[in-house]
Amino acid sequence: MDSQQLNPTPQTPAVESAPVKENVLAGAVGAFLFALVGGVLWFVLYLVGFFAGISGLVGAVCAVKGYSLFSKKESVKGIVIAIVMVVLVMAVAWYLCLSYDIYVAHQEWFESEEIDFSLSFIESVQAAPYYLADPDVAPAYLLDLGIGLVLCFVGAGSFVSNKIKAAKAASKASEASPEGPKLS
User: Fold this and answer.
1) For residue 131, with 0-12 CB atoms within 10 Å meaning exposed, 13-18 middle and 19 or more buried, which class applies?
2) pTM score of the predicted model
3) Residue boundaries of the structural domains of the chain
4) Is the pLDDT of residue 66 over 90?
């Protein structure tokens, strides 16, 4: 009996999958968009009076995930890009917190008739650099930024370290394999 009669499905050779090409630009966009979760958390926690490094951890986890989803690959370069995006988003969140404080202060000063004008939130965002130039205001807010970024790095440090080790191991494994990286 012919083997084709016993096994009616034809045997096809295994198709080797080509390595996935990393799209760095798309990954950077994904990291930025997903890091916004951490930035929003920073702002919300600030509004309720908390100062927590958890926003940095959340931002880092989300940014790395966003990078890998958009770029189609996880790499050390991607993790570094994701962390840069988290730092940028956290700095913007801090700046918006400063702007919010300026807005609230102007509203209170206007209501108590200490000043004869108030600022909109957009005007407060635009005025923030002038307040940062004030030697009485700047140290406290810059200290907040410094502490927030340190807590961000502490909160995200272990996660990032583990991701970098995993990405390096995957890179070495794909280089050592004669067939290239295997997708599972």
Assistant:
1) middle
2) 0.76
3) 22-174
4) yes
